[in-house]
Amino acid sequence: MDERLPTGIEGFDLLVQGGFPAHTVNLVAGPAGSGKSLFALHFAYNGARRFGEAAMYLVLEETKASLMRVMRTFGMGYEDLERSERLLMIDLGELRVAGPEGSAVGFRELQDFLASSLKAARVRRLVIDSLSAVGLHYATSGEYRERLFAFSRFLRSQDVTTVLITESVDPHGLTGHGVEQFIADSFVHLGLEDVKGELRRTLTVRKMRFTKHDTTKHPMYITPAGLVIASDEKVV
Predict the structure, then answer these.
(1) Which of 55, 22, 43, 39 is nearest to 211 (CA)?
(2) Closest to 184 measured CA to CA, from 203, 214, 207, 204
(3) Phi and psi (nearest 5°) for 165?
(4) Residue 81, phi then psi, degrees to nearest 5
């Protein structure tokens, strides 16, 4: 079997033959509040803490302070990992500018930054949170898709396994621009459904190349220790 990078999320790795295939670009999408950032934090934190793989988390929407607060809430001790540079949380949000052109952070700027920093920090796991912020940089969906395609090729050429986050703004759409899932090697969709007045979180692995993966929609729970996927249950 090809090398796998486990997420360490209870129940998830059982669905995908042990984790994400190495050197792939993986998309996690869903509506606001569905648990996307928490999923990515598990991937980065567990990589650094449990599996000895340096991780970099690029923050483009939320602040670094907000994500650190989330980590403390779920018992993810961060300070020693930061000191040893095993988990680098980098806030690029200050590069965003107000105005009609949206964000100053496009894929070109991200690639320039990563080209000089990934190897220097010996990063094996990368998270970009999120593509929704990068999308503000582009005037048309065609330009966004073209740039994302080139950026994904760059990521695959690096010795890194990437998780990209995007938000589903349209309740009937799966991703922000409707193209991200076709460019990524895998697509994990997190759902947030109203069932009899109660919000129910779900997870579905809709796509994963090089993997015999589960395609069932499963319940997902946020517990005091973080995310848990009920891999032996299905949502109908």
Answers:
(1) 22
(2) 207
(3) -110, 140
(4) -70, -35
Give the span between the Cα atoms of 137 and 134, in whole angstroms: 6
- Residue 2, sorted as left (phi over 0), alpha (psi -120 to 50) or beta, turns out to be beta
Q: Tell me the sheet residues that pair with 201.
A: 192
How many other C-beta atoms can be found within 10 angstroms of the C-beta atom of residue 159? 11
pLDDT above 70 covers a percentage of the chain that reads 93
CB atoms within 10 A of CB 52: 9
pTM above 0.85, yes or no: yes
Domains recognised in the chain with CATH numbers: 4-229 (3.40.50.300)
C-alpha separations of 119 from 55, 126, 162, 198 in Å: 12, 12, 14, 45
72-77 contact pairs (CB < 8 A, 24+) = 74/38, 74/41, 74/224, 74/225, 74/226, 75/224, 75/225, 75/226, 76/41, 76/45, 76/49, 76/226, 77/49
**Quick one: which of 78, 79, 70 has its CA closest to 222?**
70
pLDDT average, residue stretch 164-192: 86
Q: What pLDDT is stored for residue 172 in this prediction?
A: 60
Residues 56, 64: contact at Cβ < 8 Å? no
Residue 159 CA to residue 71 CA, distance in Å, equals 26
SS3 129: strand
CA angle 136, 110, 137 (to 5 degrees): 15
The closest alpha carbon to 129, from 29, 205, 208, 228, belongs to 29
